[in-house]
């Protein structure tokens, strides 16, 4: 999954002042997830509906319990000085469904093509004709920020051992309240005369800085956690060898609405309505994320040997700093 899976990582806090009647004529409440990617030009929205049941352990009988039928019109407006300057229509696309509770094999995802402008207001409008429903939300997009350290990958190697935990520094992003640090590991899988390039993302703990007074943030990566999480994410395969080829360090910033939403989910029963939402007349979250990364770091010799023979990663069959594998 891409960055957006890490957060991680899901995802302007707008309080919903009107009460939601869960048992309405349609029997459901629209659930909207839309985190605009400020690094891309393709934006996606996931629209579902709540499923009401007396027994949350029994799956619903059909996909109609999840999808919203009929005509749905979704648009996102760009607003400057209280005036709409651009309006973008999101059209339905069919995507394959991940494994989960509901029985249908596909999802409807609504997509539109536009670039998100930094520090700008965006307004979401959803019109469900058959339900006589209109939902709204708005937020302010993220400002720019910089990943300060580590830097100069062409001349610098990362030391990832017990005696040294790498420190990540970045500047504050305006309108952001949550950040996640991660490392993307690039490696080769070698099987006989076959070589395949691969990569894997290792996300670390989400850090909330909504009320932090400074403009310069930092996060320490625990070296043992790096190797431990790599071993949990990468499957063991005794029939092949692996060779480390590089690492990218990244920081993902999330909007205030996403920060509030993630905070509420940490205290949340999965079968209860959300404690936080910024969708008027619905459930879910509307916000944005932005990523900064520095690519192409190498590990030093000691770290490569730890990757090859360390407690957590020994079974992953990485070659050591000399390009060998000692058993």
Helix content: 10-25%
Q: Quick one: biggest sheet?
A: 12 strands, mixed
Q: Under the CATH scheme, which architecture of the largest domain would be assigned?
A: Sandwich
Low-confidence stretches: 1-26
- The CATH C-level name of the largest domain is Mainly Beta
Tell me the β content: 35-45%
CATH topology of the largest domain: Immunoglobulin-like
What radius of gyration results from the CA coordinates?
A: 22 Å
The best one-word shape is elongated
Query: CA-to-CA gap between the ends?
Result: 33 Å
- Number of DSSP strand runs: 15
SS-derived structural category:
mainly beta
Number of H- or I-type helical stretches? 4
Q: Total domains, how many?
A: 2
CATH superfamily of the largest domain: Immunoglobulins
Write a concise keyword list for the protein shown above.
mainly beta; 2 domains; twelve-stranded mixed sheet; three-stranded antiparallel sheet; 15 strands; 11% helix
What would your notes on this structure say?
The chain has helices at residues 3-6, 223-233, 256-266, 301-309, and strands at residues 30-37, 42-49, 72-80, 83-96, 106-113, 121-128, 133-140, 147-149, 157-158, 167-171, 176-191, 194-208, 216-220, 241-255, 283-299. It has two domains: 3-14 and 27-143 and 258-288, Sandwich (Immunoglobulin-like); 147-254 and 292-316. Helices cover 11% and strands 43% of the residues. Strand 11 and strand 12 form a beta hairpin. It is built from four helices and 15 strands. With 327 residues, the protein is mainly beta.
């Amino acid at each position: 999954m891409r960055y957006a899976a890490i957060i991680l990582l899901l995802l302007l806090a707008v309080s919903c002042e009107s009460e939601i009647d869960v048992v309405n004529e349609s029997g459901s409440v629209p659930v909207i997830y839309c985190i605009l990617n400020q690094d891309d030009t393709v934006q996606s929205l996931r629209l579902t509906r709540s499923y009401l049941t007396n027994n949350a352990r029994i799956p619903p009988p059909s996909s109609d319990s999840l999808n919203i039928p009929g005509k749905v019109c979704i648009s996102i407006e760009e607003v400057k000085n209280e005036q709409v300057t651009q309006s973008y229509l999101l059209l339905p696309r069919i995507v394959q469904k991940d494994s989960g509770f509901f029985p249908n094999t596909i999802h409807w995802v609504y997509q539109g093509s536009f670039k998100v402008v930094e520090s700008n207001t965006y307004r979401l409008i959803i019109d469900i004709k058959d339900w006589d429903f209109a939902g709204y939300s708005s937020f302010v997009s993220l400002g720019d920020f910089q990943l300060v350290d580590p830097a100069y990958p062409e001349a610098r190697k990362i030391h990832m051992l017990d005696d040294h935990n790498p420190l990540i520094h970045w500047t504050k992003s305006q309108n952001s309240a949550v950040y996640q640090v991660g490392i993307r590991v690039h490696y080769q899988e070698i099987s006989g005369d076959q070589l395949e390039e691969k990569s894997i993302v290792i996300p670390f703990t989400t850090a909330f800085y909504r009320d932090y007074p400074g403009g310069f943030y930092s996060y320490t990566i625990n070296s043992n956690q790096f190797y431990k999480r790599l071993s949990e994410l990468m499957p063991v395969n005794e029939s092949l060898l692996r060779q480390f080829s590089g690492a990218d360090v990244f920081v993902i910033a999330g909007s205030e609405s996403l920060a509030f939403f993630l905070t509420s989910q940490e205290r949340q029963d999965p079968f209860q309505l959300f404690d936080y939402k910024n969708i008027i007349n619905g459930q879910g979250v509307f916000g944005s994320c932005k990523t900064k990364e520095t690519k192409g770091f190498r590990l030093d010799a000691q770290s490569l040997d730890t990757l090859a023979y360390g407690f957590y990663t020994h079974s992953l069959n990485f070659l050591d700093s000399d390009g060998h594998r000692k058993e």
